[in-house]
Amino acid sequence: MFGHKRAFLYLSIFLFFFHSSSTVISTFLPVYFQEEQLTGTQIGWLMAVGPFSSLLSQPFWGYISDRYKTIKKILLLCLVGVISCSIILFQVNSFLMLLFLCAIFYSFLSPIGAFGDSLALHTSQIVGSSFGRIRMWGSLGYAVTSYLGGQILTRIGLEHLLYPYLAFTIIAFVFCWKVMDINTPSAPINLKGAIRNILRPNFLFFLLIIMFVTIPHRTNDIFSGIYIKELGGNESLIGLSWFVAVAFEAIVYLLSPLWLRFFNEMTYMVIASGLYGVRWLLFSLAETPSQIILLQALHGITFGIFYLCSFQYVSNLFPNEFRATGQLFFISVFFGLSAIIGSLGGGMILDVFNGQMLYKLLSYLAFAGFVGLLGFTAYSGKKLRPVSEILQK
């Protein structure tokens, strides 16, 4: 019992500090590049090359994890990679070198969050908790650092962005040594079997539909800070907006054992996709940064619900021996491919129009995803088990 409590504690601390470090990058890196006098299109390319590299690297790391039956060792290797690359990245001014370094940096960074979620799902089943209540600590780390990071960077300047990022990543690395690894016995796997599982038509069709929801989500991740500055805000308000967003996300995860019992995961994904459309439409009508900050509360019931349910849905589609491969491929589409399209398209729209037009278009995409998921639910035809039945096992 004590060992289970320690496993929960160490993983929770790791998730807190890793997502704290991710906050620094996802929230402030586009604004940092803007301060370095890069154009919206250039920022779009820099934000796209990372997800493009992750699109290739995440399935690779997932396959390696399944093949050697370890997540912890892959996590440690990737953390060493991001620490080394980040030190070099913030010393470079050349746009072409930045493109190259962002590709290397994100090839190590991108699988860490997905592997952390895999550990959270596995650990929750062992310690008798819920996935949401463990994953909540990552959201809390993101929320706290969004607020404090904005306050700190307002005082020390965006040019010192590297230092808080390194501090959080090194702490995450230290606690990663303590987390419980996944080493479940299973049949030997091969690349052919992994590809066959990934290329199943129902899985690919599902990924295609949810991209209408995930592209707007990732576009907002990249450009919300720039939109807040366009409305007259500063780094402090950018941090506050993400604090509000992820604080509500953490609440949604914390309460997940309560609300998950009412519907199955697909029903919740349909509801969340429709609310995404409403969220982006309201963003397009905002006139002040304070309105954006208030609207960020919707992040919890859009991303919080959509990601938790879609991650669980995908995990149940794959046999145990290919689960990490499927999860990492799903993550590469959710956070990778969608970010490529969102960063390139969003940057070009910002150069030609403005943030309000960008968010209006994002709302149209999200509503299209809502309709698509309704159709997918009807087409699949089978009754899905409530998530609560799975999480309580």
Automatic annotation (TrEMBL):
Query: Which domain of life, per UniProt?
Result: Bacteria
Keyword Lyase listed: no
Primary subcellular site in the record, as a coarse category: membrane
Q: Which GO terms describe its cellular component?
A: plasma membrane
Location in or out of the cell: Cell inner membrane
Instruction: State a single Pfam family of this protein.
Output: MFS_1_like
One MF term from GO for this chain? lactose binding
Q: Which residues form the signal peptide?
A: none
Please report the stretch or stretches of sequence annotated as the Major facilitator superfamily associated domain.
10-360
Q: Identify its membrane topology class.
A: Multi-pass membrane protein
Q: Keywords for this entry?
A: Cell inner membrane, Cell membrane, Membrane, Transmembrane, Transmembrane helix, Transport
Q: Where are the transmembrane segments?
A: 42-62, 74-92, 98-116, 137-156, 162-180, 201-217, 237-255, 267-286, 292-314, 326-349, 361-379
Query: What name appears for this protein in its UniProt entry?
Result: MFS transporter
Q: Tell me what organism the protein belongs to.
A: Bacillus salipaludis
